[in-house]
Design brief:
about 450 residues, Naphthalene 1,2-dioxygenase Alpha Subunit, Chain A, domain 1, Rieske Iron-sulfur Protein, 9-stranded mixed β-sheet, 20 strands, globular, binds FE2/S2 (inorganic) cluster, binds fe (ii) ion, oxidoreductase, iron-sulfur, 2 iron, 2 sulfur cluster binding
Length: about 450
């Protein structure tokens, strides 16, 4: 019996060996056939590849806007250990961070983007928590976007979670009360006459530059300025957006435009590779960005302007000059006008305080049709540059009295300008942090 088993096992071993050899022969045979085919039809295959790439680029540029996003823990934590405990290290770094003292109020007065227009269809309802508010944004059948407080005055249900739009009214999901355009309750089931004085708070809103904006004012004043839709966003094509969550005070983000010195410190390394940054002797071959900028106050109080000149230098030659004019409109809205040899482009930046020290930053890119490919590329290129700022913001603290040097003169001017958006009853950072929720 033992001899029989041995013989059978030996046979099995032999069969397995033959199977492996056959398999290897088949694999090598297939590889050689593919290589032979590739060499024989090299030009044809190359052509097919190029056609596919061109179709893909055209499709992404014209038909499928680019979307690039980074989560809060994605940027600025490369220095922490990798591995299975990484999330623990990130949380520890975030918790032990000191945000600085004398931080300005977290919610300046101004217009803030809540929802992108494309995410709010007619009859659509979106819940937004921002600026210390719980909001319901909906679009009535007249196409107008409206912003109301989320909680129903009856028993407090959240209108944005399960609520429905009827005409231009929003209906509460709990007992189906309806609230009209001005926030007044207009209908209660099984009740013929709606008692007077029942209403939900409405907020001033506008829809421009691809987004629905709310007017936030600590003093309860009506909007101190309005903004017209830009011609560019009206007439050009949308090429995509990038989106970031940044752990910093809102003021730090627009201050970046006035911080001229950081431009060549942070944004000089080539987007193509960081190698040139690490090995200086390669800098001239790979190329690097060169920036100069000037920040100034605008004609109206709530406006400011930054003029930026960009060069991409390879061997002392500027191979890609770009002029950028950034129009800062209030605390949280920027239009960046790009002008380069391949045509114009615009980026709309919005900054929304989700919590006192958490900002949602979105950049939307628009270009004329002939310039769509560059526009799609700009979504990514700008995101790469912005990521470098986010890595700093996610780890820095706010310094209320910096050690200013001459090149920081714009920062001082910027802070004075920005202080107009804080008012007497602006919620202090301390109060906002101590009671983020109304328990
Ligand atoms: S809670 Fe909204 S209708 Fe009752
Ligand atoms: Fe920057």
């Amino acid at each position: 019996m033992a001899i029989k088993d041995f013989t059978e096992n030996g046979k099995n071993c032999q069969e397995t060996k033959i199977d492996k050899i056959t398999l290897i022969n088949v694999i090598f045979g297939a590889i050689f056939t593919v290589l032979e085919f590739a060499f024989k039809y090299f030009k044809l295959l190359l052509l097919i590849l190029i056609v596919f790439i061109v179709i893909y680029v055209l499709y992404k540029s014209y038909c499928s806007p680019v979307f690039y996003s980074k989560e809060l823990s994605d940027v600025g934590f490369d220095h922490l250990p990798k591995g299975k405990d990484r999330s623990f290290h990130v949380i520890r770094a975030q918790k032990s961070r000191r945000f600085g003292s004398k931080l300005p109020p977290p919610y300046p007065n101004g217009w803030f983007s809540l929802v992108e227009s494309r995410d709010l269809k007619v009859g659509g309802v979106v819940a937004v928590n921002a600026l210390g508010l719980n909001l319901c944004v909906y679009r009535g059948e007249d196409g107008t976007a409206r912003v109301v407080d989320a909680y129903c005055p009856h028993l407090g249900a959240n209108l944005a979670v399960g609520g429905n739009v009827y005409g231009n009214c929003i209906e509460c999901p709990f007992h189906l009360w309806k609230f009209g355009e001005n926030g007044q309750c207009v209908s209660i089931p099984d009740t013929n006459t709606v008692p007077k004085g029942i209403s939900i708070k409405t907020h001033p809103s506008m829809e421009i530059d691809g987004s629905v904006w709310i007017w936030y004012d600590a003093e309860g004043r009506p909007p101190l300025w309005t903004v017209d839709e830009s011609n560019e966003t009206k007439n050009w094509g949308y090429r995509g957006r990038n989106e970031f969550y940044v752990n910093a005070h809102i003021q730090e983000i627009p201050e970046n435009g006035a911080d001229v010195a950081h431009l060549n410190a942070v944004h000089s390394a080539s987007l193509l590779t960081d190698v040139g940054h690490k090995y200086q002797f390669l800098k001239n071959i790979i190329g690097h960005h060169n920036w100069s900028a000037e920040w100034s106050k605008g004609e109206a109080d709530h406006l400011a302007q930054i003029k930026i000149a960009h060069q991409y230098i390879i061997m002392k030659y500027d191979v890609f000059p770009i002029d950028v004019t950034a129009h800062q409109i209030g605390p949280a809205h920027v239009r960046l006008y790009f002008s380069c040899p391949l045509g114009p482009m615009i980026i709309i930046q919005s900054v929304t305080p989700v919590t006192p020290l958490l900002q949602k930053v979105v950049h939307r890119v628009y270009t004329p049709n002939y310039n769509a490919i560059l526009g799609a590329a700009l979504v990514i290129m700008e995101a790469y540059q912005f990521t470098r700022d986010v890595a700093i913001w996610n780890n820095k603290r706010y310094v209320s009295s910096p050690a200013y040097v001459k090149s920081d003169k714009n920062i001082r001017a910027f802070r004075t300008w920005f202080s107009q958006f804080y008012s007497e009853t602006s919620l202090s950072m301390r109060d906002a942090m101590q009671s983020p929720y109304d328990w």
